[in-house]
Amino acid sequence: MDIAERLKAAQGIDIESAEIIATDPDCLKTRFTLAAADGSRTRQRAIFMRLPADEYALVPVTARQSTGFGCAKLSQIYASSAARGDFGGEVVGALNGGFFIFIERLWSRAARFVPSETRVGDPIGWRMTAGETTFPPLYGRASILFGGTGGARAASPRLTDMTLVFSWRDGTESRLSPSAVNREWTSGVACYTPAWNSPKSPRRPGAIDVSVIGATTVSSSAGGGAIIPINGFVASAEKHAWGVAGTKWHSHPARVAYELNAAAEEKFGGAAHAIEAGPALVSDGMPLEIDVESLVASGFAPRTPPLPAFNSVLNHYRIPAPRTCVGIAENGDATAAVFEGRMPGESKGVTLNEAARLMAAIGCRDAVNLDGGASSQMILRGGSLNQPQLGESGGWMTRALKLAGKLATPGTLPLPGDIGAGGEERSIGDALLIVRL
Predict the structure, then answer these.
(1) Mean pLDDT of 288-313
(2) Which of 97, 160, 252, 399 has the CB geometry, 3.0–4.6 Å to 220, for a possible disulfide?
(3) SS3 of 278, please?
(4) Quick one: how far is CA 261 from the chain centroid?
(5) 3-class secondary-structure state, position 79
(6) If DSSP codes are grouped into helix, strand and coil, which group holds residue 404?
């Protein structure tokens, strides 16, 4: 049963038509109506692309990895990546990735921490490409893994799945294996993320705490009480675990790298690529019911958000909007989906609960939501298959950014032209490349 037939058979969904919009037969653009509980019906458009595990791979890449800039348009990330030719096959398309730091200044103030360089574009959560983790899993959100045994699969990674490899300036290394995250701990290695109930790590006599953002260490302190950086964490361990003596810790490690530990390698089946986003939409073939309680319980957002950008996710799940999702079939094949929205009379958009039911209807065993709204976009062979839409607030946001940009440090706020008005691309932090093997 193909995608169109599955949608026709799904309760409350009525397909009007389906058309192939590219030479690839597994890519369909559908038009259908959604029936709401109150009896109303809305028009909806969606793009579905089947990605058999033996023919395609989805490879996460950050804008910085691909273009050298923290943020870039999806078309730029696609063009730069396609020209490189080092992703194990032909880069035939791309879709927007997960969540990323959008406005620097708000995040910095929220954590009482001002980074030495702009972090706009940094991923929020785990990103692994070709087995190399560039950003670690911080929030326990839903992730999609690609490669290895069994094709694509869903997972909920933790920092405890990682071995942290710190490089000191004298050429030595410290290898730490976290045993606790966001818990009071008196022995072993503990990590504290922005979800911890304080802007600082707890006091811990005899420990050395190092603050980390991505692959960069930003500060260190003895006895705990280290500032937890935005989109980063604090690693806390006794001196003997760090393997340092005397005053060496005063010059904190220069870099940190991440390796999956042996247990995680087995659990994740040797996956080569990973992206953390969320929330999870489908599990074991059943659509999940998404509400505030489920978002908090799944680690997608804390009940009392420490970061302003998290406030919106506890409301936007119920608002029809453009969405990007990735689903996984029982055999490990993936399906990329973009639901168009914010186009009155043409395509309203879907709530997260509607997206969950639709992804389950097309036969997904598991499915995860990626970044949506103005970021939602799919490119195939250089052409965009949909028109990104910012929504009615676009004019107000553009004017606000123009005003704020006069006062902000260059590079710490997005440019007005980067957020994407109707039919324009928004600059994003990362993407999923569609690679034909």
Answers:
(1) 68
(2) 252
(3) coil
(4) 22
(5) helix
(6) helix
Closest CA to 359 of 351, 291, 302: 351
Angle at 282 between CA 369 and CA 232, to 5 degrees: 40
The span from the CA of 307 to the CA of 228, in Å, is 12
Q: Is the pLDDT of residue 131 over 60?
A: yes
DSSP 3-state of 168:
coil
pLDDT at 111 over 70: no
404 Cβ neighbours under 8 A, 6+ residues apart: 413
Q: How are strands ordered across the β-sheet holding 366-369?
A: 13-20, 27-35, 41-51, 334-339, 323-328, 366-369, 280-283, 286-287
Return the bridge partners of 392, or none.
none
Residue linked to tokens 């890449």: 61
Location of structure tokens 């045993």:
179
Determine contact, residues 310/302, Cβ cutoff 8 Å: yes
Interatomic CA distance for residues 382 and 16, integer angstroms: 28
Q: Output the CA torsion 310→313→315→316 (10° steps).
A: 140
Give the residue extent of every domain in the chain: 3-100+268-285+323-391+425-436, 160-264
173 phi/psi in degrees, rounded to 5: -130, 150
Contact 93, 434 (CB under 8 A): yes
What contacts 24+ positions apart, CB below 8 Å, involve 244-248? 244/168, 244/174, 244/208, 248/168, 248/170
Task: List, for residues 301-355, the tens digit of each pLDDT value.
Answer: 765 544 444 445 667 788 899 999 999 999 999 999 999 998 888 899 999 999 9
- The percent of the chain in helix, strand and coil, each rounded to the nearest 5, is 20, 35, 45
Return the H-helix or E-strand segment holding 38.
Answer: none
C-alpha 301/C-alpha 278 separation (Å) is 10
Q: DSSP assignment, residue 68?
A: S
Peptide bond into 279 cis (omega under 30): yes
- For residue range 172-195, list pLDDT tens digits in order: 889 999 999 998 877 889 999 888
pLDDT at position 248, please? 55
Alpha carbon 151 to its chain centroid, in Å, reads 20
- Please choose, from the candidates 235, 246, 244, the residue with its C-alpha nearest in 3D space to the C-alpha of residue 168: 244
175-183: Cβ within 8 A, 24+ apart: 176/235, 176/237, 176/241, 176/242, 177/261, 178/235
What are the structure tokens assigned to 362, written together? 């097309």
* Residue entry with tokens 């089947």: 50
Contacts for 43 with CB less than 8 Å, ≥ 6 apart: 31, 32, 33, 345, 346, 347, 348
How far apart, in whole angstroms, are the C-alpha atoms of residue 348 and residue 339? 9
| pTM across the whole model | 0.88
Under DSSP, is residue 28 helix (H, G, I), strand (E, B) or coil? strand
